[in-house]
Write a structure and sequence with these properties.
Elements: H1 2-13, H2 18-32, H3 42-50, H4 57-69, H5 73-85, H6 91-104, H7 110-120, H8 122-127, H9 132-142, H10 153-162, H11 166-172, H12 174-195, H13 207-229, H14 235-253, H15 258-291, H16 294-304, H17 310-326, H18 329-346, H19 351-366, H20 373-382, H21 386-409, H22 412-420
């Protein structure tokens, strides 16, 4: 097995696509485990794994996000955030965080939010006297809010893997996401007072127009999440509804022609195809893990080492936080959730609460040194040196880890709304 892992690492280093590496390693693992007789069943297992009604919503939410990102929605939300928080000391830092909260209802992707905010806000923050490393660091840190506040591609992925209610996960993400935003704003207020960062205000005559322009964009997540919470639509139907809303709102905000629509479809196809390829490859690994009873053996081994209940959750935090630094989120979910999450559920952890903890870990990992994907994106777009950015983001990551531990060990934060709306016992 060590030899197989070494070969997989060499293939990845050589630039071979991740889905091919996982698939090839899975097949070779059957040979190494003397289970070659079961290889004929792999196509059936792959089809059964991806033939999931919940997964249908993922490409549709991606498409809705792509359509809105290519229209004027993001600019309208940015102006609204400026109106609400620009007048505070360190206003642009607060606007950065608030815009990530608003963007969460559009893309649900930390990387997309990091790229958008790096391009729109960091240059403006530089002009207003913010240190470039600080502007880039708060942008990378705030981008992790996107996948926590619904709709979230990460939560859909987790729900499909664990058979957990996606609607319950969506509802559970609200309070942790807002708590994370509040903590980042508090840290920004501390820095702003120490560094003397000023406030920015919107002219009085513009305020009504800003609110009017932002309302259509804000109504989209309200309609989608409201429909899911009150049982009017399923998450998959809500994803379809989000595409229609995005098309309508995209036309309201400005020029959105056929070329833009085609680009959105093409980007959606590429992202969705890569995710389903990874899912197919991981299905083979999951099949072998079931044959070898790896989850059961791992649970018995960990309990024997003294990991049980909350101590096991601490172990999961460490594992998934590190995984988020090095792996793409869908890959980390597909590889680790089937292996580690069922053990936590058998120990009494609610699968909805567990999903929020895991998703929060992975997204914080994306903004954590040394190899967080959001750090790479922000550094590339803003031109801030990567290692300078890594040093500057550490205080923000530490605050996010504190919020992670609070959410982990105070499950009521993530479970109060699911219980209120009947998605948890």
């Amino acid at each position: 097995m060590i030899l197989l892992l070494a070969i997989a690492a060499l293939l990845l280093a050589g630039g071979v696509a991740l889905s091919y590496v996982i698939g090839a390693t899975a097949v070779l693992s059957f040979v190494a485990a003397d289970r070659t007789m079961f290889l004929a069943a792999i196509p059936q297992k792959i089809v059964a794994h991806i033939d999931n009604f919940t997964l249908m919503s993922m490409p549709l939410f991606i498409l809705a996000g792509e359509i809105m990102n290519r229209s004027g929605v993001t600019q309208a939300l940015l102006r609204l955030a400026m109106l609400m928080f620009g007048g505070l000391r360190g206003g642009l830092g607060h606007v950065n965080v608030a815009t990530s909260v608003f963007f969460a209802g559009i893309s649900g992707s930390a990387v997309a939010d990091a790229a958008s905010l790096s391009n729109m806000l960091v240059p403006q923050m530089r002009k207003e006297g913010y240190r470039d490393t600080y502007a880039a660091a708060i942008t990378a840190a705030s981008s992790v809010i996107g996948p926590i506040i619904p709709p979230s591609i990460v939560m859909i992925f987790y729900g499909a893997l664990m058979g957990t209610s996606v609607a319950g996960l969506f509802v559970a993400g609200f309070l942790p996401g807002l708590l994370l935003a509040a903590a980042l704003m508090l840290l920004n207020a501390v820095y702003s007072r120490r560094e003397g960062y000023a406030s920015q205000s919107t002219p009085m005559s513009d305020k009504r127009a800003v609110i009017r322009d932002a309302l259509p964009a804000l109504l989209i997540p309200v309609i989608i999440i409201g429909g899911i919470v009150f049982g009017i639509v399923t998450p998959t139907e809500a994803a379809t509804l989000s595409v229609f809303c995005a098309l309508i709102v995209g036309r309201l905000y400005g020029p959105f022609d056929r070329a833009g629509l085609f680009a959105a479809f093409r980007r959606t196809a590429v992202l969705s195809g890569s995710i389903f390829l990874i899912l197919s490859a991981v299905a083979a690994f999951g099949y072998l893990a079931g044959l070898q009873q790896l989850p059961t053996r791992m649970a018995e081994w960990l309990i024997g080492l003294g990991f049980d209940g909350w101590t096991y959750l601490l172990l999961l935090n460490v594992v998934f936080l590190i995984a988020g630094m090095f792996l793409e989120v869908p890959v980390a979910l597909a590889l680790l959730v089937p292996l580690l999450a069922p053990t936590a559920v058998t120990m009494g952890v609610d699968p909805v609460h567990l999903g929020i903890v895991i998703c929060l870990n992975l997204t914080i990992g994306m903004a954590s040194p040394p190899f967080g994907a959001c750090l790479i994106i922000v550094s590339t777009v803003t031109g801030v040196g990567y290692w300078r950015l890594c040093r500057a983001v550490i205080p923000f990551v530490l605050v996010e880890i504190v919020i992670l531990l609070i959410v982990t060990y105070v499950p009521g934060i993530s479970m109060v709304l699911p219980r209120l709306f009947g998605y948890a016992g």
